[in-house]
Amino acid sequence: MPLLYAHRGAAVELPENTIPSFKRAIEVGADALETDCHLTQDGVVVVSHDETAERMANVQRAIRDSTLAEVQTWDVGWGFVDRFGDRPFERRGFRIPTLTELLEAVPRVRINVDAKVRGMVRPLLDTLRRAKAEQRVLIASFDIATLREVRRAGYPGKTGFARREVLTLLALPQRVLKWRRPQGSTAQLPHRVGPLDLGTPHWVDKMHALGLEVHFWTVNEPSRAEELLRAGADAIMTDDPRKLAPLFR
């Protein structure tokens, strides 16, 4: 059965990449979660898309230059702006969680973790091993060096493909890829790249013939999600799991 991934949680309803947002996503029907991770100055893996706190907390500070104690004082509720231009979650206690906190908050839920920076592979793998979460966490990254390090370390869970590897999958003929397929288990693709529609049976069938799952991001319109599911998508990532959940039920 195809999976509905909540992209950074229920990001249209609550501040992204926070525990309440992730829990809300599961509550409204998401099967799995997508998130991003950075590393603090004192070596703790935390959940955040951005490398700085500027967009979400109005703080001019990088996560890599800050301790966990400092990071968790930032008010990331500030960064949620509703359709009226208001900030309804400012000073409401929303903060950046550690990856350990997220794993504990949603036991048994599948999670896609995008490792955003080099140098965080060992702490990331140690965190997943201690939490016994390796079999439910897919590690992704745009950076090929990061994914190669994960694979060399013998990570027992699934891995996605770096941007360069995805381009290889799309560009090379299937007969060549059977002999030169990059490592990894899951092709995560934007559903469109400019005028090119990747959400067609042609592309999905090509990935499936190579033994790969196909996950599309980021899809918020039910009509488009329905097209991708008909094309054979294995998973869809969305900011609005409540809106798309009925398709998956």
Characterization of the model:
Strands 1, 2, 3, 4, 5, 6, 9 and 10 form an eight-stranded mixed beta sheet that branches. A two-stranded antiparallel ribbon has the order 7-8. By secondary structure, the protein is α/β, with parallel strands linked by helices. The protein has helices at residues 19-27, 54-57, 68-71, 99-105, 121-130, 144-152, 163-171, 174-180, 201-209, 222-231, 241-248, and strands at 3-7, 32-39, 45-47, 110-115, 137-140, 186-190, 192-193, 196-197, 213-217, 235-238. The chain has one domain: TIM Barrel, CATH 3.20.20. The protein has eleven helices and ten strands. Strand 1 (3-7), helix 1 and strand 2 form a beta-alpha-beta unit.
In terms of quaternary structure, the protein is: single chain
Structural class: alpha/beta
The Cα radius of gyration reads 18 Å
**Major sheet details:** 8 strands, mixed
Uncertain regions spanning at least 5 consecutive residues: none
CATH architecture: Alpha-Beta Barrel
Work out the number of β strands.
Answer: 10
In the CATH scheme, the class would be Alpha Beta
How many angstroms does the end-to-end distance come to? Answer: 10 Å
Helix content: 25-40%
According to CATH, what is the topology? TIM Barrel
CATH superfamily: Phosphatidylinositol (PI) phosphodiesterase
Q: How many domain regions?
A: 1
**Global geometry:** globular
